[in-house]
Every structure is written in structure tokens, then in C-alpha cells.
Amino acid sequence: MVRAILRNLVSGPVAVQMRRFVIVGAFTAGVQQILLWAFVDAAEINYLIGATVAIEITILLSYVFNNAWTFEATQHTGTGQYLRGMLKTNLVRGTAIPIQLGVLYALVEWGEIMYLVANVVAIFVSGLYRFALDSQWTWG
Q1: Is 24 exposed, middle or buried (0-12, 13-18, 19+ CB in 10 A)?
Q2: I want to staple 39 with a disulfide (CB 3.0 to 4.6 A). Which of 28, 32, 45, 99 is the partner?
Q3: Is residue 111 classed as helix, strand or coil in its secondary structure?
Q4: In 3-state terms, the chain is what percent helix, strand and coil (to 5)?
């Protein structure tokens, strides 16, 4: 499965969408990392709570960018369609939150990996799941 996804980044029917999704994801992952650091180190919030809030903020940011650029061919226009799409992506990505938090927790608590490094791994793992569902359901 991972091999097929990586192959689709180069060629295939969804190559452009996949590349754009990865670019948007990389940008919003960076935003999420900055937010997570600010919540944990600056505001002294528990890393799991900070991650949850950072994830939700970047879910909304990702929707805005993915709707405008990644899935421009099936872009949601109009207020009702846009809000339904945002609700759908929140449902899709919301189901990925336990995956991301679970990986984050396991790596920090059991693997003794720094929370920011663990979060990068968790974002990648949950990102594969999010693309599969978003591309098929939110903009499918």
C-alpha cells in the first residue's frame, strides 16, 4: 500500500492531487508543530491536550487550502457546500485524531521520544489514512 501511494506521487491518475495534498500537509504539519510547541513549552499545557487543539486548528486550515488548491476540480463553492465539506473533513480528520494521539502517546511514553519528533511520525501515520478518506469522501 505504501509503495502504491509513493508511486502515485510520481505518476498515475491522482498524482497531482497527491502531490498537492502532501505539500498542504507538510505546510500545515509545520503550523501544527509550531502550535504544539507554543501550547506545551510556552503555555505549559499537557502535550496531548496541546496536540488535540493544534490538530483541530490545522484541520480547518488544511480544508481551506485543500479545497482551494488540491481538489480545485471538485472544489466546494457556495456557503452550504463549503460548510458541508468542512463538516465532512472534520469527521474524516476527527477520526484520525485518536490515531495521531495514540502514536504520539506511544512514542513519547513508551519510546521516550521527544514530543515534537513523535508528533512528526504521528502526523505521517495518520496522514495516509486522512488522504484515503478525504479524497474519496470529502471531495469524491
Answers
A1: buried
A2: 45
A3: coil
A4: 85, 0, 15
How is residue 34 written as a grid cell?
509550531
Is 92 within 8 Å of 137 (Cβ atoms)?
Answer: yes
C-alpha cell belonging to residue 86: 468542512
Cell 487550502 sits on residue: 65
Instruction: Give the predicted TM-score (pTM) of the model.
Output: 0.83
Contact of 88 with 60, CB cutoff 8 Å: no
Residue 71 CB coordination number (10 Å): 19
Polymer length in residues for the chain: 140
pLDDT tens digit at each of 140 positions of the chain:
567 766 766 777 678 887 898 899 999 999 999 999 999 999 999 999 999 999 999 999 999 999 999 888 888 999 999 999 999 888 888 889 999 999 999 999 999 999 999 999 999 898 878 777 777 777 77
